[in-house]
Design goal:
alpha/beta, 60s Ribosomal Protein L30, Chain: A, Alpha/beta knot, four-stranded mixed sheet, 11 helices
């Protein structure tokens, strides 16, 4: 049975200010909890119904586990339909390493505000082998429960950092080619890409903002084949750009 203080603590992690205070976030549901338990993230506690615990005791290992009744799970869950298990996970350092080099492409996002978009972008990054995502400081928080859910577990395999994006790109632009998606760029389907570089995606409402755009020498555009839509959803644009980068690389090896 959960104590009143445990219930208050778990419910508080639905809010950003308490995630920051306790440096922790929640993961809900069998699939995501299974993924995080297999990852390098530090899990400080698992709260689950007896049937889930019995089925997954080997996966849990030495992680502190509390048995809860379905009614208790409803009280601490952020989902409309609670799903057997909740884990409390420690938030890792979100600052990029001061000395970071990479031998492939990494992805950067500028001002992404929608949780579902960021989650989809993280899933896309993993699918196409982008191991690192750099977010501008004002992008939506990656440990927002809606972001966590929409990553479908990819969050636990893609490194996500937050930083002053214009300054970060300025530090790397001499060593790596920086590409960005724009409405007035060069046709992406006619480009060739080296093995390593940086791809920047902006929000669909504002695009890549001027301070970041000034650091991008290679402007890419995804031409519309038909239709008259103003722009693509940010996560869709990310998927197309990532696919073309990987296709170009594979074609040239």
């Amino acid at each position: 049975m959960l104590s009143k203080s445990q219930i208050q603590y778990l419910k508080s992690l639905q809010q950003k200010k308490f995630r920051e205070k306790y440096s922790a976030f929640v993961v809900e549901g069998p699939k995501l909890v299974s993924e995080v338990l297999k990852s390098d993230f530090s899990v400080s506690g698992v709260f689950a119904i007896p049937q889930w615990i019995e089925k997954n005791f080997r996966l849990i290992g030495t992680v502190k586990t509390v048995e809860v009744a379905p009614r208790e799970l409803e009280r601490i869950s952020g989902l409309k339909t609670p799903n057997n298990v909740i884990a409390v996970v420690q938030i890792p350092d979100s600052n990029p390493p001061k000395e970071m080099s990479f031998d492939n492409f990494l992805l950067a996002v500028d001002g992404i505000k929608d949780p579902g978009n960021l989650g989809s972008i993280i899933r896309t990054a993993e699918w196409f082998g982008f191991k690192t995502l750099i977010c501008s400081n004002d992008s939506v928080e990656v440990y927002n429960p809606k972001v966590v859910q929409s990553t479908m577990g990819s969050l636990f395999r893609v490194k996500v950092y937050y930083t002053d994006l214009p300054k970060y790109l300025e530090e790397l632009e001499h060593d790596y080619s920086v590409f960005g998606a724009f409405l007035d760029g060069e046709n992406i389907y006619k480009q060739s890409f080296a093995k390593r570089g940086i791809l920047v995606i902006g929000s669909e409402s504002h695009g890549i903002r001027p301070a970041v755009a000034r650091k991008i020498k290679n402007r890419l555009h995804i031409p519309a084949i038909a239709g008259s839509g103003e722009s693509l959803n940010a996560s869709v644009a990310t998927a197309i750009c990532c696919s073309e980068i990987k296709r170009s690389f594979l074609k040239n090896i």
